[in-house]
């Protein structure tokens, strides 16, 4: 999807993750800042770990913000039986994903799957002199985890297959917000709003791109205990519900060694 040229502030966020309370909170932030839906961009995975899959999709669609397909949207649209993250068999992420994906798969109806099937893979636009491309995980693999500690040569390889002249990549998927300069471009990750950033804080993250192009990683306060109680009420109490209260992931084995707790 090519949006042409955009002006004014942009709000970018990833991974609502079926967290209705966080989704409503980031929408409220956009309203407070006066940023219209056509300048609010979600990097995908509207549905994942938390308990309100259908309601979160409905909230996003009612808002009318821009959304690209995450791996969860791809998998649900295809009636697949797993989230498509490619977790190593037997890891915590692999074992826990079976529960939350089955719950989401049962909540999402046909019209929602049709909407997911129609989402673009990438969004491109120009803003503040930058040629921007929004992707979910990696350019080569939608479910690739790329981190602030990922070697520059791997990010440059991803950049090489994006539209020629791209100077700003906006991504999500990994759950950790960061900004990193790689050769001719900046790689921005706005983090996710549906889960904390594995730093012991319950706030989640979203990004603001100011009219001058400056990127700001922002904290999102929302009623996380309500979201956790929803997960418990629907039986999603394998571990991610505690993340909403503690700020720590139960699935630390997905992280590079440098980002794990000592």
UniProtKB/TrEMBL annotation:
<dbReference type="InterPro" id="IPR029052">
    <property type="entry name" value="Metallo-depent_PP-like"/>
</dbReference>
<protein>
    <submittedName>
        <fullName>Metallophosphoesterase family protein</fullName>
    </submittedName>
</protein>
């Amino acid at each position: 999807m090519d949006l042409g040229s955009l002006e004014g502030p942009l709000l970018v966020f990833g991974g609502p993750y079926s967290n209705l309370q966080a989704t409503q909170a980031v929408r409220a932030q956009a309203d407070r800042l006066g940023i219209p839906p056509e300048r609010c961009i979600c990097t995908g995975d509207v549905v994942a770990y938390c308990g309100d899959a259908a309601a979160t999709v409905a909230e996003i669609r009612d808002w009318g913000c821009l959304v690209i397909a995450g791996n969860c949207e791809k998998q649900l649209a295809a009636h697949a039986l797993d989230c498509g993250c490619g977790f190593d068999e037997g890891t915590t992420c692999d074992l826990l994903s079976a529960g939350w994906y089955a719950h989401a798969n049962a909540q999402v109806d046909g019209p929602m799957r049709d909407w997911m099937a129609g989402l673009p893979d990438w969004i491109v636009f120009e803003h503040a002199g930058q040629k921007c491309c929004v992707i979910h995980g990696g350019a080569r693999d939608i479910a690739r985890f790329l981190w602030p500690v990922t070697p520059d040569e791997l990010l440059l390889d991803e950049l090489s297959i994006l539209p020629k002249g791209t100077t700003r990549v906006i991504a999500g998927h990994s759950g950790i917000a960061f900004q990193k300069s790689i050769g001719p471009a900046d790689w921005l990750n706005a983090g996710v709003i549906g889960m904390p950033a594995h730093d012991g804080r319950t706030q989640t993250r979203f990004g603001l791109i100011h009219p001058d192009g400056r990127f700001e990683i922002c904290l999102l306060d929302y009623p996380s205990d309500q979201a956790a109680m929803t997960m418990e009420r629907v039986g999603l109490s394998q571990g991610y519900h505690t993340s909403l209260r503690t700020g720590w992931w139960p699935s630390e084995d997905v992280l590079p060694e440098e980002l794990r707790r000592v």
